[in-house]
Design brief:
alpha+beta, two-stranded antiparallel ribbon, 356 residues, 2 domains, 10-stranded mixed sheet, 9 helices
């Protein structure tokens, strides 16, 4: 089993990077790149996927308890497990995924990733490898029953995450073919839990279980996943066989083809408009996330400015006190000079009396 960890350091030059078990900086694994296309990797997300004879578990957005970057932002850790698709490895990854969904993995990874080293952080891979211990025994490998095989989607909530964690502990992962072999020959996402991701993307990916905060649902329960179909692929062409027969005149056939082309172009434009709307919605969500990030950056700056203002006020008060002290000393000096002058006058008077 391969393990990769992504994190960052406190200093500006210690940007986020992936480390392998030899503590070398590496590029994101190809399976990780495919999984990140389905999630908002900056936020807490979980992906379980199958790729030919490989299994992937990716968990992102795990907050560090004490480490912050040079801008005061909380550093987030991500971990990827890649293993052979075997009866021994699958329960392990399912157990870790359930552990993450229940909110326990964040603390474990935080304890294994510390500040230090030339990369800005150090990873105890041995500590990460011991995570499944004590939890695999609690995991079962029962085959999915018919209701459990159905693909479902829902709005992210603690209840649905707990329910999904329970299913992962009890049932084997389903065996299913890629939804779009032309796009992704082997990669099959089975479980996707994330923050900002639209429902259509999860439908198109054909996930077995999908949770996203963008799923518009008033229900707190799972919804059946409907097969994704692009309406632009349908049109009046499906009706052409009814018109193409020996009795159809060439002019009528040409007219039908023209109408069909026009309708398909219109449908394509409508779908394009929907895609643009979804893209705009995603942009709005990203801008909102950036706004929150900026607000988090501004808050410590406001605190620093407030502290500096207090320090400046204290210094102004100290300066005023010093000026008062100086004035008092100058007054005392003048009084002493007057007293000295009086004493000198008395001495001179005494000297005159002595001379007489």
């Amino acid at each position: 089993m391969e393990i990769y960890v992504q994190s960052g350091g406190v200093a500006q030059e210690h940007d986020y990077c992936w480390l392998d078990e030899n503590h070398n900086i590496v590029e994101a694994h190809p399976l990780v790149k495919k999984a990140k296309d389905l999630i908002e990797s900056e936020a807490f997300s979980v992906v379980l996927a199958r790729n030919s004879d490989k299994l992937l578990l990716l968990v992102t957005g795990l907050k560090a308890s004490e480490r912050k970057d040079y801008r005061g932002r909380t550093i987030r850790n991500s971990v990827a497990w890649i293993a052979q698709d075997t009866d021994e490895n699958e329960p392990t990854l399912r157990a870790i995924a359930a552990h993450a969904l229940l909110g326990f993995l964040e603390k474990d990874i935080d304890g294994a990733v510390k500040s230090g080293g030339e990369k800005g952080f150090e990873v105890s891979f041995d500590q990460i490898k011991t995570l499944p211990e004590g939890r695999i025994d609690q995991s079962k490998s029962e085959p999915l029953n018919s209701p459990q095989k159905e693909k479902k989607i829902g709005r992210t909530s603690d209840n649905l995450k707990k329910e999904l964690a329970s299913d992962l502990k009890q049932y084997c992962l389903p065996r299913q073919e890629p939804e779009h072999k032309s796009d992704n020959q082997l990669f099959v996402p089975l479980v996707v839990v994330t923050g900002i991701q639209d429902k259509e993307t999860l439908q198109k990916a054909g996930v077995w279980r999908g949770l996203s905060s963008l799923v518009n649902s008033n229900s707190q329960n799972w919804e059946d996943m409907k097969a994704y179909s692009n309406p632009a692929h349908k049109g009046l062409f499906q009706f052409l066989p009814d018109f193409i027969n020996p009795g159809t005149t060439p002019k009528l056939l040409i007219l039908v083809i023209i109408i069909s082309l026009s309708v398909n172009i219109w449908l394509y434009q409508q779908v394009g408009g929907q895609d643009r709307i979804r893209n705009l919605e995603n942009q709005v969500q990203n801008l909102y996330a950036q706004k929150l990030d900026l607000e988090n950056q501004v808050h410590p700056l406001k605190t620093q400015v407030h502290d500096l203002e207090i320090q400046a006020q204290n210094k102004r008060t100290q300066r005023a006190d010093l000026q008062t002290d100086v004035q008092d000393l100058q007054t005392q000096k003048r009084d002493l000079e007057t007293q000295v002058q009086g004493l000198e006058n008395q001495v001179q008077a005494l000297e005159k009396q002595i001379c007489r």
